[in-house]
Design brief:
Elements lengths: L2 H11 L7 E2 L3 E2 L6 E11 L4 E3 L2 E2 L3 E10 L1
Antiparallel strand pairs: 1-3, 2-3, 3-6, 4-5
Length: 69
């Protein structure tokens, strides 16, 4: 039920929300070194495509993330 509310900012941000987002560099939890994190939402885009900017039935499946140190 809460996914619609959390997903709304991604809809308003448009294509920028569907690109890789990188954090600022930070010290990892064990203080062993510096880390940067990249995230990317993963969508199921089944359904009809009206045009390139307006896809129907975009269901977010999850978020992929990677830590680089």
């Amino acid at each position: 039920e809460y996914l619609d509310v959390l997903g709304r900012p991604m809809v308003l941000a448009g294509d920028k929300a569907k690109q890789v987002q990188w954090t600022n560099v930070y010290l990892d939890a064990l203080e062993l070194g510096l880390v940067i994190t990249g995230t990317l939402p993963v969508f199921n885009i089944t359904g009809q495509v009206e045009n390139k900017t307006n896809l129907k039935n975009q269901l977010i499946l999850g978020v992929m993330g990677v830590d680089v140190s």
